[in-house]
User: Which sequence fits this backbone?
């Protein structure tokens, strides 16, 4: 099957059982091979390549073997190509190692995720791509949470009469300041002390990448409002009365 980036992937159909299809919604037992190249796989590739093992996240070397649903989609039928038949005696899957059921359309997602993980970890900056993504977005969440507190305090002084769904503290801003300080310490520790500098840098870059988009739409809305305000309203036509 050809992937979205133009590379080719390969899989072996190890078994085909109609009774299994009727009971567990899966007909073909497919094993994804460790193959992602810019050329179509040959029969030798199917013989020599091993089953893909997932090492990212908590998979711990789990082989990608699933019971696949019937291939009924017309578009998917054109994308999945049958190369031929070979002896697959070198692959004997353990029933406990089968990951469950799936569809042909997402069979090779595990291959793409594993290859992306290998590329990300090859330089040494990202020992685990999934941990890196989790820490980066965790930093972003903590950073934005600190900004919420700053915005709350600033609005207390710039727009004290603004209608609010609820208010922290009945009078004054002492309770708001206390909440801001406590939450800023908690989220600041999570953002600055619990993640590495590369994860902080990536999180900041992702956050600030939205500033040009925000500025564009803010300018667009401002121009629209200015056009509405400056549009001349036609004067009413006088009506003559007898």
Assistant:
């Amino acid at each position: 099957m050809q992937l979205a980036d133009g590379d080719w992937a390969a899989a072996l159909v190890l078994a085909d059982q109609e009774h299994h299809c009727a009971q567990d919604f899966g007909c073909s037992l497919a094993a994804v091979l460790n193959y992602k190249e810019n050329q179509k796989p040959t029969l030798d590739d199917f013989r020599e390549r091993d089953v893909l093992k997932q090492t990212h996240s908590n998979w711990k070397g789990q082989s990608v073997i699933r019971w696949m649903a019937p291939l009924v989609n017309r578009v998917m039928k054109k994308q999945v190509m049958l190369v031929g038949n070979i002896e697959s005696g070198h692959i004997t899957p353990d029933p406990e190692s089968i990951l469950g059921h799936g569809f042909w359309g997402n069979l090779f997602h595990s291959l793409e995720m594993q290859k992306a993980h290998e590329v990300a970890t090859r330089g040494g900056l990202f020992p685990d791509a999934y941990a890196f993504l989790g820490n980066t977005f965790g930093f972003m969440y903590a950073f934005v949470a600190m900004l919420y507190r700053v915005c709350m305090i600033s609005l207390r002084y710039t727009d004290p009469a603004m209608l609010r769904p609820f208010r922290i503290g009945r009078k004054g801003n002492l309770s708001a300041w206390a909440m801001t300080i406590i939450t800023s310490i908690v989220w600041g520790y999570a953002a600055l002390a619990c993640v590495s500098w590369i994860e902080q840098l990536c999180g900041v870059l992702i956050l600030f990448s939205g500033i040009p988009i925000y500025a564009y739409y803010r300018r667009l809305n401002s121009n629209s409002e200015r056009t509405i305000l400056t549009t001349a309203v036609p004067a009413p036509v006088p009506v003559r009365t007898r």
Observations:
- The two ends are 85 Å apart (CA to CA).
- Strands lie at 8-16, 28-37, 53-54, 62-63, 65-68, 101-102.
- Residues 129-158 form the longest helix (30 residues).
- The mean pLDDT is 80.
